[in-house]
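Today's session is about reading a structure prediction critically. Students often jump straight to the picture, but the first step is always the sequence itself: look for stretches that repeat, for charged clusters, for runs of hydrophobic residues. Only then move on to the predicted structure, which in these notes is written as discrete structure tokens rather than atom positions. Here is the chain we will use throughout the hour.
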Amino acid sequence: MEFIVLAFPEEQLRVPAVEAVMGLRKTGVVRLIDGLVTTKTASGEVLAAEFDEFVELRGLLAGRDVARLIGPEDVREAAELLDRGSCALLLVVEHVWAQDAAVAVRAAGGRIVGSVRIPAERVEVA
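Below is the predicted structure for this chain, in token form.
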């Protein structure tokens, strides 16, 4: 599983970007486990809202896979990454493709011995 913070430069979500991210869920590549919307107002106030408070996100967190894992401390830490007057989607996702691959590796007698996320900046430089 992974905790992801997707920041947007205004206090409102950009619907096309949200739709693209949520499209991954529909394909079965990732499973959405938890999510919140966090806003850092122009005055610096930090707000958090459930998905169901947004028409474009309503119903995304429904079903047996949902767990409330994002807490107030996570919201505060994510808000530190935001500029004033911006917002973010906070997501906990399970990488379904990785789970399927791990099962296949174990069935072949292998094991996963490490994993490192490579920052986008490094990929661009390479």
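Discussion point for the tutorial: The longest strand covers residues 30-40.
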